[in-house]
Fold this sequence. Notes:
Blueprint: E1 11-15, E2 18-22, H1 28-35, E3 42-46, H2 52-55, H3 58-65, E4 74-78, H4 82-92, E5 101-105, E6 110-115, E7 118-124, E8 132-138, H5 147-152, H6 159-165, E9 170-171, E10 177-178, H7 180-183, E11 192-196, H8 204-208, E12 214-218, H9 226-232, H10 237-247, E13 252-255, H11 266-276, E14 280-282
Parallel strand pairs: 2-3, 3-4, 4-5, 11-12, 12-13, 13-14
Antiparallel strand pairs: 1-2, 6-7, 7-8, 8-11, 9-10
Helix pairs in contact: 10-11
Amino acid sequence: MPLPYRHLTSVLLRRDGDLFLFDGGEGTQVSLKRLNLKWKKISAIFVSHTHADHVTGLPGILMLSAQVERKEPLYIYGPPKIAEYIESSRRVLDMYINYPIVVKEITAPCIVHKGEGFSVRCFPLDHTKTCVGYTLEEEDRPGEFNPEKAFSFGLPAGPLWGKLQKGFEVQTTDGTIVKPEDVMGAKRKGRKFSFVTDTLYKENIAKEVKDSDFLVCEGMFEEALIDQAREKKHMTAKQAARIALDANVKRMCMIHYSPRYTDKELQKLLEEAQEIFPKAELSRDRMHIEIPYEE
Length: 295
């Protein structure tokens, strides 16, 4: 349930001007407004499952986006029933929508969304109804350009350098063919973001989120309540930390805490998680986190 000092689950990922929303619980629109984010640039919404605490903020987001001129479609991905939820909300609320909404239901693990230089993949979780996790993974970036090597081939600074950096061969004035690998360093790793919530602990989750630069993972209960976690098909903070450790993630923030914990009491979840994964953190409403490239 939403608390006066804690909204429901939602994560916004910003990448090169695009915004991607993962779940949209009650209060999501409030946080968007308070952060003064360019919400009209949300290009895709990824829904883990259709429990109310993960989708009740979506109708407001759809209507908010209609307050500006928009031609680009909004893509919404989620398990079965998400299309029915969106359509019934539009019909019952008589929504004014001035842009295309494309809803795609997920029936199997797959790449659900692709863009220039990245893709978003879904994978199954184990909850009381069909639920999925997501990873957004960037393609490798080109290696670093070495001007000295380019000069050694007699290539002056200019358009030919740009062609090499884009992966094309060029020819010098004396007919020598210069390939990109002649002047470029090794490819550099892109970034990986993962989102996991509302699931029993499963060892295979670590494989799905392996080597993530940033993992957002539910840590709903303390270890003393592990039986309750199993009954409700949720995880403890220690189990979230075990996934982070086994997956070799660089950074992990927990989310989706039980409302039984006050903000002060969340420290217990953090301490238990850090016993397993010392870099575990607590996420907070409107927390802003940079995900740097690995250089």
